[in-house]
Amino acid sequence: MTDQSPILDELNDRSREVFRRVVESYLHDGEPVGSRTLTRTLSEKVSAATVRNVMQDLEFMGLLDSPHVSAGRIPTQQGLRMFVDGVMEMRDVSRDDQDKINATVGSNQKDVGAILGSVGKALSGITRGASLVLTPKHEAPVKHIEFVHLGQDRALVVLVFADGHVENRVFQPPAGQTPSSMREAANFLNALAEGHTLSELRNRVKHEITTRRQEIDVLARDLVENGFALWENEGESYERLIVRGQSNLLEESGNSEDLERIRSLFDDLERKRDIADFLELTDTGEGVRIFIGSENKLFSLSGSSLVVSPYMNSDRKIIGAVGVIGPTRLNYGRIVPVVDYTAQLVGRMISDKS
């Protein structure tokens, strides 16, 4: 992301107001804004011709664009970035929105994953976008592991932890796996798992595979290696991404091109293996970050924007993130404070429960 302040400093009061009203109107209804429409809303009484000249200057600066001849202007990605960074006014989170988010975190559910699923559902409902919630990794010792063959290219791993937590994860096994090879792999893992977290078990498996390579069936070994590639990222335990509100994005899409971009977005999500990328988006520390269009390295092909904030545990360590994804004309002024509020609330909830 580039610093837009030098461009902003070049704008006089009239240009700044024209720019702000074009962007606000576009974010509200998604339509290009014409000069005649703007003349009725500007604080200064000027002619439509004067406004057209200002809009042409803003277009020359790369802040506005004309989708069609004589069809008004819309903000460019650069324009949206400058608006978000230097012009947008943040709203306070309304009492109604606070109550909806507080109700999910303040529920009597003990399962953090279930609470975060409810948080995602509430966030999606409030923002009318798709919510993303990255849950913290589970670090209790593993009690039992089981692989279930679901078909030629699908399998299920069931992880039972010593604290009673159970996780079911569907993954694509290496080619050639059979139910018997999966049982052999599960037996091998269970012999090593007792008393160890997934992080510790991963290191033990690597050591055992090295020292006992000849004792393990080739296909079962392949399953172990590939299975753990899905469970864990380099040096980190697997994080689980919860997605809520996909239908909101589809409802917002008014044409086939938009629908195709949204489908591309969720294809990205379905295919995503290295979910840790989502957390890396927040690696500069505390606070909300906004990724507009191609700035969004996770979903750059979708033409969408991502508003994301990390949440932290009691040690001030980033352990997960919450966010909202939607079209580039998101209501940033409302959504940014809501995401920030949710992240802080989730962090306090995680700290209290731990």
UniProtKB/TrEMBL annotation:
Q: Which InterPro entries match?
A: GAF-like_dom_sf, HrcA, HrcA_C, WH-like_DNA-bd_sf, WH_DNA-bd_sf, WHTH_HrcA_DNA-bd, WHTH_transcript_rep_HrcA_IDD
Q: Which Pfam families match?
A: HrcA (PF01628), WHD_HrcA (PF03444)
Any idea where the Winged helix-turn-helix transcription repressor HrcA DNA-binding domain is? Answer: 11-78
Q: Does the keyword Cytoplasm apply?
A: no
Q: Where in the numbering of this chain does the Heat-inducible transcription repressor HrcA C-terminal domain appear?
A: 115-336
- What GO molecular function terms would the record report? DNA binding
**What keywords does the record list, in alphabetical order?**
Repressor, Stress response, Transcription, Transcription regulation
Q: Name one GO biological process term.
A: negative regulation of DNA-templated transcription
Against SUPFAM superfamilies, the record matches this protein to: GAF domain-like, Winged helix' DNA-binding domain
From the UniProt annotation, give the residues forming the signal peptide: none
Q: Which PANTHER family match?
A: HEAT-INDUCIBLE TRANSCRIPTION REPRESSOR HRCA (PTHR34824:SF1)
Q: Which family does it belong to?
A: Belongs to the HrcA family.
Instruction: Tell me, in a sentence or two, what this protein's role is.
Output: Negative regulator of class I heat shock genes (grpE-dnaK-dnaJ and groELS operons). Prevents heat-shock induction of these operons.
Which protein are we looking at? Heat-inducible transcription repressor HrcA
